[in-house]
Amino acid sequence: MVKYALQRIVYMFFVFMIISFMSFVLIRMLPLPALAPNDPHTTILEIRREALGYNKPYLEQFWIFIKGIVTKWDWGTSEKLFIGRDVWGVFVEKLPASMIVNLYSILWTIPVGIALGVLAALKKNTWVDYTISTLTMVVISVPSFVYAFLIQYILCFKLRWFPFVMKGGTDYFSWAMFKSIVPPILALSFGVIAGFCRTTRAELTEVLTSEFMLLARTKGLTKTQATVRHALRNCFVVVVPAIFGEFIGIIGGSLIIENIFSIPGVGNLTINAIRATDYNVFMLSTCFYTAIGLAAGLVVDISYGFIDPRIRMGSKK
Amino acid sequence: MTTMKRALALILALIMTCAVFAGCSKAGVKDSDITAFDENAKYTYTSWASGLASNWNPHDYEDANSSDMMSYLIDSFYTFAFNDELHPMEDETRTPFDGYVIIPSMAADMPVDVTKEVAKEHPDWVPEGAESGYAWAIPMRKDLYFDTGYHITANSYVEGMKRILNPDYQNYRSTDVYENTYGIVGAKDYFFQGTESFQSFSDMGTTYDDYIANGGSDADVVIDIGGFWGIQTAEGKTYESIASETEIRDPAVEEGQPEDYVSAKYLWDNYLGPNSTSGYYEAGYTNQYAGTVKVYEDNVNFDDVVGFYAKDDYTLVEVFNASCSGFTLFYNAIQDSLVLVEPDVYDKCITTQADGTYASSYMTSVETSPSYGPYSLTDYQTGKLAHFSRNDKWYGYKDNVNNVYKDPEDGNIYRLYQTTDIEIQVLAENSTAKNMFLSGDLISYGLQAADMNEYRNSDYCYDTPGPQIFFMLLTGNIDGLNAREAADGFDQTKEDIQTITCESFRKAFAVSFDRQAYCDETSPSLTPGFGIFGKTIIYDPDTAAYYRDTDVAKQALCDFYSVDVSQFASLDDAVNSITGYDPEAAKELYAAAFQESLDAGYITDADNDGKCDQTINIIYAVGSDNITDTMRLRSEWMDNAIVKAVEGTPFEGKVHIVLSSPLGSGNEFAEALKSGSCDVCLCGWDGSAMDPYNLLQAYTWDSYSYAANWYHPQQDMLTLTINGEEITMSVYDWAEAVTGNDTTVNGKTYNFGTNDADQETRMHILAGVEGKLLQTFTYIPFANNGSKMLLSQKVYYVTEDYNAVMGRGGIAYLKYNYNDEEWAAYCEQQIAEHGQLQY
Asked: Which residue of B170, B362, B438 is in closest CB contact with A44?
């Protein structure tokens, strides 16, 4: 397992470098915004572009970029979106807001989603199952921003239970902050709950009808014992990687929800960086998410081995 | 133009923020005469924006969001104040708060002309023989401080100037100091020291012919190949000697096609040189795109070359490239707000990057934002919020001379800036802002089309007209349209687009839209627009008089729209009768356009049924990153209108307006129109709100003009009678002459600039050029911009009347009905009773 993991880490590094280089070249191949002729500022912008190495070969530019990171952890300065600011500082400043909202969301959606899925599977073909399944379909079919607006209108405007938008500041664990992020948490949660519920119900329903479950019951286990000890564990082979996937989403942020609830997160950073051709911001966010994605893939793969003993990583036999 | 826009936006923001102080007696009013606000109460101005600036460094800011932030933190030597008893206008007929006066702010007094003095000390800074208007000494207040405690003296400005012009820093705003007409003497030499650059004959204030006549040599002449042809040499140079035969690849032309490789000599021989047959030489392009190489001396000393120095601790001397005085001196020339920075903080914010360039984090956070304005930045979160609180070190809060005004309603004297705190938060959704406003969380809310029926008649609804005209810009680039039709996938038997270049079609198109209905149904904050210049364009800054209100401007519209003034009781009635909509005339013109297009071979009528065989899909360019509901609504409205307009004509059912894909939020839409890859868009120019003459460049300079590829103002002749003399020259030349540039026609030089012609003459020229531009049917005026907003019951304006310079007073004059505590209680009670605040 260790050897397998190390091998994957080496592969990861190469894949990371290839993706980074491709992203670097592709973003720099995008045409820069046209400069207005006769606008006196055009001269300054041309001088800047020259000084920033925009006219140098891509390989040389990439080398300067990598050298800055390796030697000084210098990801460069934002040239458009946050002019003059160190992009790593901006990114780190924005990351917690996205993480906190998504983390709270995940923390309650996983147990609720799984519980509803288990309940629906155990009560299969009863009104409970029908109700949960129907609600799940409805919730999955409606985009999260629709809930966001409904939640904001009903809970914040009409009932005045919560503030309209996320509170400013960095006191992420204060009561006032928590109260202000309940609406986005709710908006983010419905879809995730429905997703977990559906996955859990489908897997558990299948496992519950397996022959080994019959064997477990005939060995004298109660239905609860058989379900908890055997059915749920098998069903988690599919559910747990999905949980990991959701955790990765935590740091990804949500473009629309962040906009609606004014969450100063990283949700639209990459898209804005592409639009503004802010190279350094784009490269940092791309590298960050590439690294996270690759690492998550590794974690998910390894987790299979722990969850399901039948799966052994790197085994030749 | 963007530059101008941003610079003006900043100045106006400053005016609104720092407006007032002075004009009254130096002694000022007694403290006991001032009606005090509750010192212990908080008055918070809560506003919102869809985006928040990330950088508000005066040396390096680039957008309007930045100038908004900056406006609270900076101040200026001179500012505007409403006219009242304490600051009266010279014109005694004016009533309080119907105009404005220019008064000292950070300056202790009005500037003193020291041209003669400077000419003696630095003869190279002032033109020989000049005695006034070039050098001005500004006496400064002695109680000026940054909120860091740094004492501001004349030398602080010099230090700021050294930094903004530091060649290593490449500050974006350095150009505003060295480049504009009234740039600081020597600033450009200091900034570009040790480099060389292209300078056109126009920049040099001469022409190619004069240059050669005065002994210049062709050997020294270069072409701006970057600007003229969009190419550069292998070394990356954008100019090249006219003798160079080095072939340069033109990436815009497919390999193997004509002119895929061109040399500077080729461009000179075929386009720009006096022997070329392209017409460019005659049209004046040579002076714009040809010139010489200027070599800037290296290692120059700031004090020796830059006309910006401290005469003593509290007197700053500025020397300008051009003579100026009056409004121009205060508004365009004096460099202060852009220049002044807190040097200690500034220097700490400079860092060197991995690539060797410099970056500055000055004014990007609370810690790096020293303030010398009325407010200090006390909280800032990127992309989320900014909070400003009173800057107690600001002199204005203790000043009884300029920092006070007499309320026109109650006659009491108050201090400016009742607002103690300003909070700006980022909201992406309009619906959120509306709900927050109705809950008392925001001071104002800009009305959307869907809100109009409910709120347009509210007592709290304010209508603000704008200076900008949105026109339907209809492409006339026949080459571009031909190329589109020739491309694969375009079936010329079923589709056509060339017809939109037919004059009759363009005239028909212009009268096909009911502008009032358009505004009512799609954009209620707009009003119909009929000219090139909007309602609040000021032609005389001294009196804040609007160009559109003048007889000459009204007559220009009546002439263009064929309104017989004699049929009306007054010129006002005549101009008010203009709708720009004439469905009957449109149908006749479409019939004529059908024949014109048939004759040109653009369309066919194979079955001779008198109907066009092709469909004309006019592509409406979307200058945005995405298509909004409003854009869709407007496009659909226009499509319905054009479909209705062509009913009963040979084009019935054959003309449509369709939305393009989003072209991005930059200038891409303009490029699409210019190239002919899109056909129409709704756009306009702003900026120069107090200088319509300067705004003419947007239509006459190829570098700005949307229509540069098909409308050539250098060749469009206009005859006007000036002081009894009938003068004929091109629209371009008229525009140049009226903006103060010497223009030679038939051996005679004309200049109708501020200093050389009276206002009446200049207006006459302006109206003449406006009429001529309208006749191109390229710029089809559609709507005048404006906005409608609800103002919170928490506050009120000291005057209800809108003034294009002062607005309604901005933050400086804003008054409060409730302090924060009272407001919270009031909102709670109202919401308990009605569910929301009642507007």
From this structure: B170
| Summary count for chain B: helices (H), strands (E) | 30, 35
- Both tokens of B459, joined, read 């007592």
Find out whether B139 and B112 touch, Cβ atoms under 8 Å.
Answer: yes
Q: In angstroms, rounded to a whole number, what is the distance separating the alpha carbons of residues A12 and A24?
A: 18
A91-277+299-307: which CATH architecture? Answer: Orthogonal Bundle (1.10)
Are B9 and B67 in the same domain?
yes
Residue in the block written with tokens 């060797």: B356
Q: What is the mean pLDDT of residues B263-290?
A: 87
Q: How far is A71 from chain B (nearest CA, A)?
A: 9
Phi-psi map region of A277: left, alpha, beta (phi>0 left; psi -120 to 50 alpha): left
Verify that B225 and B288 share a domain, yes or no: yes
Task: Tell me the residues of chain A between 162 and 201 that have a Cβ less than 8 Å away from chain B.
Answer: 164-166, 168-170
Within this chain, do residues B412 and B493 fall inside the same structural domain, yes or no?
Answer: no
Size of interface A-B (CB pairs under 8 A): 153
Residues B517 and B646 in one domain: yes
Top residue of A52, A262, A270 to mutate, by most chain B CBs within 10 Å, is: A262
- Report CA B554 to chain centroid distance, whole Å: 23
Q: What is the pLDDT of residue B652?
A: 96
In this prediction, residues B140-165 reach a mean pLDDT of 97
Q: For position B577, which CATH number holds?
A: 3.10.105
- With CB atoms and an 8 Å threshold, state whether A168 touches B381: yes
> What is this model's ipTM?
0.85
- Domain boundary (B683, B703, B726) is at B683
Judge if B575 and B652 occupy the same domain: yes
Q: What is the pLDDT of residue B2?
A: 42
- For chain A, domain boundaries: 2-87, 91-277+299-307
pLDDT reading at B10 higher than 70: no
B427 and B495 share one domain: no
User: Residue A158: pLDDT above 50?
Assistant: yes
Q: Which residue of chain A comes nearest to B3, CA vs CA?
A: A39
Residue B501 domain-assigned?
yes
Chain A environment of B701 (Cβ under 8 Å): 38
Q: Is the pLDDT of residue B741 over 60?
A: yes
pLDDT in tens, B497-534: 999 999 999 999 999 999 999 998 888 788 999 999 99
Give the range of the structural domain holding residue B662, as residue numbers without chain letter. Answer: 465-683
Residue B715 placed within a domain? no
User: What average pLDDT does this structure show over B696-725?
Assistant: 88
What pTM did the predictor assign? 0.82
Residues B209 and B62 in one domain: no
Nearest neighbour of A85 by CB, restricted to B175, B364, B671: B364
Chain B: closest CA distance from residue A138 (Å): 25
Interchain contact, A65 vs B57, CB within 8 Å? no
Which carries the bigger pLDDT value, residue A309 or residue B779? B779
Q: Provide the 3-class DSSP secondary structure of residue B483.
A: helix
pLDDT exceeds cutoff 70 at A26? yes
Question: Residue B343: pLDDT band by 50, 70, 90 thresholds?
Answer: very high
Same domain? For B625 and B573 the reply is: yes
- Domain boundary, last residue among B295, B310, B340: B295
Span B34-47, average pLDDT: 93
Q: For chain B, how many structural domains are there in total? A: 3
Residue A157, min C-alpha distance to chain B (Å): 6
- Separation CA B608–CA B29 (nearest Å): 85
d(CA B249, CA B543): 55
Q: Look at residue B30 and tell me whether its pLDDT is greater than 60.
A: yes
Confidence check: pLDDT of B754 > 80: no
User: Which residues of chain A lie closer than 8 angstroms to B54, CB-CB?
Assistant: 78, 81-83, 85, 90
The DSSP-derived string for B572-633 is HHHHHT--S--HHHHHHHHHHHHHHHHHHTSS--TT-SSS-SSBEEEEEEE-SSS--HHHHH
Q: How far is B384 from chain A (nearest CA, A)?
A: 5
Mean pLDDT of chain B: 89
